[in-house]
Specification:
By secondary structure, this protein is mainly α. It is 41% helix and 4% strand. It has 3 helices and 2 strands, in the order αβααβ. The chain starts with 15 loop residues before the first helix and ends in a 7-residue tail after the last strand. The protein binds zinc ion.
Length: 98
Amino acid sequence: MKSLPTCQHCKMQWTYTESLKSLFRLRCPYCGEKNFARKQRPRDIIFSVVSMIIILFIFPFLNFTFLWKTVLVFIALAIYIATYPINLKLTKDEEPIF
Ligand SMILES: [Zn+2]
């Protein structure tokens, strides 16, 4: 089940492309209001834990060249950005980091 973000101001659901376009600013393409991403999503936690394990424990044992490691990091980053709008929850107010 994938769900795309809904603007908390005008309740319009963003399309996948719109979400990708407003990935960093999170400004609604319909009403122009600013939204904030909910922090501490399970997906983000899983992603950071998995990438940490790979970088710290798996990378040192692989005989990959620096170039291959860079390529893998970029692929991971691309997957992260591509899946970012899925299950993204928006809020009207910025949440404190802690
Ligand atoms: Zn809106």
